[in-house]
Amino acid sequence: MTRSWVAPLTGLLNRRALALAFEDEQERAKRNGSVLSMLLIDLDHFKHVNDEHGHDMGDRVLIDFAGRASGVLPESAYLARWGGEEFAVLLPALSLQSACRLAEAIRTRISEPALKAPVRCTCSVGVACLAAAEATIEQLARDADNALYRAKHLGRNRVEICDRAFAA
User: Residue 163's CB: how many other CB atoms inside 10 A?
Assistant: First the structure.
């Protein structure tokens, strides 16, 4: 990806780059009759980190998250900074069950004590999965966001699945 499609702080893809990757992966998935899964991940109580420890520490937490999450993801995944302390992962041809296992692995990894950022964080994750033929990035993001909202509402530091996720 070109530099303009990378979030400068974290080195992750930005939303535009993720949307372009989605278009390519959707075409491939349609040809193969497979699904597309998406995770939306939000760092829990991130405002508290900035308020209590300053924005430099907040930046260190975001950079630490990017490294940890990247280390858990398969090469086929696309990790992007969605905005603020929210991240999106596009998972081509990954079933709902596999996407949930991956979401749980990320959640667990993020909750471990940090090496580069001395502030301990947790994250909440929403999981969505749709057949490629009916998937749009907007719908996947909306479904994952609804699941993420439920994870936050139910106490944070958890993974929730969209009610209408495609169980392939």
Answer: 10
Q: Which of the residues are catalytic?
A: 85
Angstrom distance (rounded) from CA 127 to CA 109: 17
* Per-residue tens of pLDDT for the chain, all 168 residues: 455 789 889 999 999 999 999 999 999 999 999 999 999 999 999 999 999 999 999 999 999 999 999 999 999 999 999 999 999 999 999 999 999 999 999 999 999 987 665 788 999 999 999 998 888 999 999 999 999 999 999 999 999 999 875 554
Supply the DSSP string of the chain, one letter for each residue.
--GGGB-TTT--B-HHHHHHHHHHHHHHHHHHT-EEEEEEEEETTHHHHHHHH-HHHHHHHHHHHHHHHHHHS-TT-EEEEEETTEEEEEEET--HHHHHHHHHHHHHHHHSPPSSSSS---EEEEEEEEETTT--HHHHHHHHHHHHHHHHHTTSS-EEE-TT----
* CATH homologous superfamily, domain 10-161: Reverse transcriptase/Diguanylate cyclase domain (3.30.70.270)
Which tokens sit at 84?
């603020």
Give me the residues paired with residue 91 across strands: 37
Q: Where do the domains of the chain lie?
A: 10-161
